[in-house]
């Protein structure tokens, strides 16, 4: 038995509606099961029950064993003082409030239809070799229900990303421009260098960056130098020497501290994703815009693509790394890469900013994400193998949220798909 099944039973009223009694033998009528609380505190708020002739309003706590009340030390927590009913699978011990009064208990183990228990076991065990528990049954859920669940999943994903943004906003003294700068820089680093670029963004004094708008070479110097890419004594390339010299000047002028910035990596990267290329592209992006934040928060998808029509400085036309010449090829930013920046940085920042200003419009953000190509990765491929349609970034983002926050954590009964399937099979 798992507690999440007991939550499901209570929330969806999968117990007999008549003839209920407390463990003490009193007649029990459930008038309102309450609202499910997924945070700390009692499991259901604002329930209403009638015990004997007394109407009670308050909270409901759910456990497998009644003794779990004491295992979790609820008797010491004032948040549980207003619990009016203890719903348990096994009532193995009486539970008392601080004032010494006993909390009535409802024991479920002899009340639940065996078909529900069998259906739950089949759902949780899934099918051997399946990608997710409900892999063989997921298409039994209607397209309408699945689409509604995806809407909620995507907004939930935006909320999760908002937590990082709001933390940065507090850290940076409500400087939205620095928040955007730092998160864009992180995503320019992609998976391998994302954290290193993130530490670079957080440790740069953004007022210094503002002074370098329109000065791409100096901004390159700052980014390369702070990332530890200008420390070699063996590279005699004229461009490298000039970068190193200029960074020495900036380091002295701004009293820069490199110790808090993580080192970048070239390991397992394709040359177009080398940190040298990405940092130069980033420098060109910021050096060419007087107010990138304003533009990215308000402009259309086509205008976003226009803003990112930049390329690394001319030196990188014939290089991927310092001092090593390569076949000439301008290092521009691909549409696919811009799409990832829109998905992971621009839309979440826009969502937070517009909501903060009280001018949030969910339709405009949904329209933007629904018109961007889906992401390509093994998780999305596996959903496609289950015949789940994935035609846009909206769908791929919602499926990533589903997989990472529900499927891998066996939260099937907090998932609309899991609850629908269990209702169908019980």
UniProtKB/TrEMBL annotation:
User: Which Pfam families does the UniProt record give?
Assistant: DUF2851 (PF11013)
Q: In terms of domain of life, where is this protein from?
A: Bacteria
Looking up InterPro entries in the UniProt record yields: DUF2851
| Name of the protein this chain belongs to | DUF2851 family protein
